[in-house]
Amino acid sequence: MSELENGGPLHGTPATNTPAEGGRPPAETVPEAGPPGRTTAAASAAPGRVAPPSPPKPRIGDTRPAPAVPHPSPSVDPSPGPSDPGGRGAARPRGNGNGSRGPGNGGRGSGGRATVDPALEDRDPEPRPVGPGMGPEGAGGPDNGDGDGDADADGGPRRSRGRRRGGRDRKGKSVGRYLVAVHVQPHVTQISMLEGRTLVEHYVARAADETTQIDGNIYRGRVQNVLPGMEAAFVDIGIPKNAVLYRGDVRYDREDVEGGAPKQGSQPRIEDVLKAGQTILCQVTKNPIGAKGARLTQEVSLPGRFAVLVPNSSAFGISKRLGDNERRRLRRIVDEVRPAGHGLIVRTAAEGASEDELRRDVNGLLDQWRVIEAEASRSDAPGLLYREPDLAVRILREELNSEYRGVVIDDRALYEQVRDYVGTVSPELAERVELYDAEVEGQPIFDRFHVHEQLHKALDRKVWLASGGSLIIERTEALTVIDVNTGKNVGKTNLEETVYRNNLEAAEEVARQLRLRDIGGIIVIDFIDMEIRENRDKVAAALRNALARDKTRTQVFDISELGLVEMTRKRISEGLIESLSTVCEVCHGRGIILDQSAL
To answer: Are strands 173-174 and 178-184 parallel, antiparallel or unpaired?
Structure first.
């Protein structure tokens, strides 16, 4: 991915150091933008010195214009100095004229095109000074692509690239990697998450989802029947279909177990803990899918912005995605703010949060729990006690951070609700919530951010790869099968190399499609057979790396001798296709109609 998509700075072509004649110390030579074939002033002033290469000509498909002759930067003296013959201290433009990065870009190719997101389309190339103490990248030192960031131009400490990207502005617009576009219709709300211009996640919430989209809601339930053979109980929570509670999700006191407390380390049978007609407090962990009811747990938890409260529990934890130093810092804070008698889990979003912010978050969750407890004690009838916020607020609670350059909403009521919530939990990000007026902009929000065409492609059975290969995605009752084909990709060297490159590209696209289509359960990927074991290992590693960006839990096994990869992805919802379609009334989802005349 190019740095433009990441919201980071562009790096220019590194300067070339050549040995000087007459024993003079080597000086940095910076190529100036000019007509092809013309030597620079610096080259003509040094006899015997090889002229630096001219910037490449613009190519078809470039997203930025060719660099113009740079004007001197105010911070750089354009006049030649004693140690700078030929005016080599002049400013130079960022980039190399074709939107690609120069050497030192962490292993990325230098011939690719940069994709500009809508927030950066109007960015003009600006001169970049080269002065003392600045490395060949022109940004305070070389960048080795290890993610540690660059040093400041004044020799200051190195900052992480993610924090730098999230904290800057460009022409008054926030710079970040992700954008959330929310489209509200009378009976459905759609939320798209874009990385650069690429659609990576899409959510659909309907007005009738009071009985289907209930993940996270807390209910007062009544046990209908207990099935010892299934080690489960069916619970009425006030919706048409009973929910299921498995033995592993049952919470109990050892003294209340019928027949005496179980042995140490063993779990009692479910019929000894639950009885028909018993009232329990439970929370939905998985939405009802198809003929299956919602899944419940008695281990209730209340998620906040920075922490998750686990009432009446001793649970404690800190996100493993945080660094060791940050975990130690948060551990000291949690010891101060953790409420007595309740468990607390610190989320990844708490990175950099102060003690006051964590304390406010925990106190708000405690107030919510007191309200739920009071409501639960009023009656024994099954019903809803706590409802999760709207889908847009829920996603922002889980995801919003400094890497999001904006949240654009085309409905004023929802915009005000989201803005108030973000202003409460993250005031520094409140200005990134924007109201989109389709009449003023002249086009719908999904057209403005190129969501419609990507969404239609995500509903197709066939997915084309950039090289000409393709994916065929077939969903069944038990599993999802993905077939990888070379298609129009004929390669250039040999069959093994062609297949290997096609499989590498397919691994990236498979991970994206699983996330975008929200496919869960068992997944079998049929890669094209590769003879070399090392190639199979590299493709499997590429698939795992691509899936690491997915917040949904996955498990991937190695590629078999037949080129098959077996993996699982946690199923949370019914999926994108099911949320945007209905079963055909004629064929009932089979896709075929039997020839009745032959039968």
So the answer is: unpaired
